[in-house]
Design goal:
Layout (H helix, E strand, L loop, with lengths): L5 H36 L5 H36 L8 H41 L7 H32 L1 H4 L5 H22 L19 H22 L2
Helix pairs in contact: 1-2, 1-4, 2-3, 3-4, 3-6, 4-6, 4-7, 6-7
Length: 245
């Protein structure tokens, strides 16, 4: 392998960068869900302190968060385009399991920019106004709720996304060399259906975004999201073990 040839760039350099920026993205996702959101909820009536935290801490974290998402998505797509025979060189087990991981990663990046950041801009603008003594924006609470639901959905997706990003390179092709395309496609379809149902639910399309909607139980706390993420991963893992044999 020569320095800066196609194999080096695709198989090593871009993978290294993909992992590096992915750590930043998912690390911040976990920070938001496991640290910042519970901490801000614990502020209670300390309204101004909460707004200052949003303006000075969350704003910076969201900048790195959203651009790390773009960098992760971009380097991942470049890998598939530069690595020679990326989709065919490791068999159907690789092709279809990495497709699950890529679907989840792409959807998560879309959530970052199209839902989370879109609504967090409203929340951050409101924080600046309140700190300056202006009246609170009545739309901020609803925007924050939508951003929270999408963030928790990404947290749920991340367990399976990481599994089906790492697994295709280090586990599935060797463990299931004789996987048939029909069974692998069935696995992909099952995954896509589950992903679609969860995503539609997180967007509030199955009863709205209000806390009274019982279908939003997976997103009402980080503990609920951890349970849901674990269950989704378990279902997909068992399905892969059964269908790829």
């Amino acid at each position: 392998m020569q320095l800066f040839d196609q194999a080096f760039i695709g198989d090593f350099l871009l993978r290294y960068l993909h992992i590096l920026v992915g750590i930043a993205w998912i690390g911040l996702l976990y920070y938001f869900n496991l640290v910042q959101v519970p901490a801000l909820a614990a502020y209670g009536d300390e309204g101004k302190a909460r707004m200052i935290t949003l303006d000075k801490v969350a704003r910076r974290a969201l900048w790195w968060f959203r651009w790390a998402a773009i960098a992760t998505l971009g380097t991942g797509l470049l890998i598939t385009g530069i690595v020679e025979n990326y989709w065919s060189r490791s068999g159907d087990a690789h092709k279809y399991t990495i497709s699950i991981g890529m679907t989840l990663g792409t959807l998560m990046a879309a959530n970052v920019w199209m839902v989370i950041w879109k609504n967090q801009k409203v929340v951050l603008a409101n924080a600046v106004n309140v700190i300056g003594g202006a009246a609170a924006d009545p739309a901020a609470a609803g925007a924050g709720r939508k951003a929270l639901l999408a963030s928790r959905q990404n947290f749920i997706f991340s367990f399976s996304m990481l599994w089906f990003m790492v697994g295709p390179a280090h586990f599935y092709p060797a463990a299931f060399p004789n996987a048939t395309s029909s069974n692998a496609m069935t696995l992909l379809i099952i995954a896509l259906v589950l992903i679609a149902i969860l995503q539609i639910n997180a967007l509030g399309l199955l009863g709205g975004t209000a806390a009274t909607n019982k279908l939003l139980w997976p997103y009402e706390s980080h503990k609920n999201a951890m349970i849901t993420g674990g269950v989704l991963w378990l279902i997909l893992w068992i399905a892969s073990e059964v269908l790829l044999k």
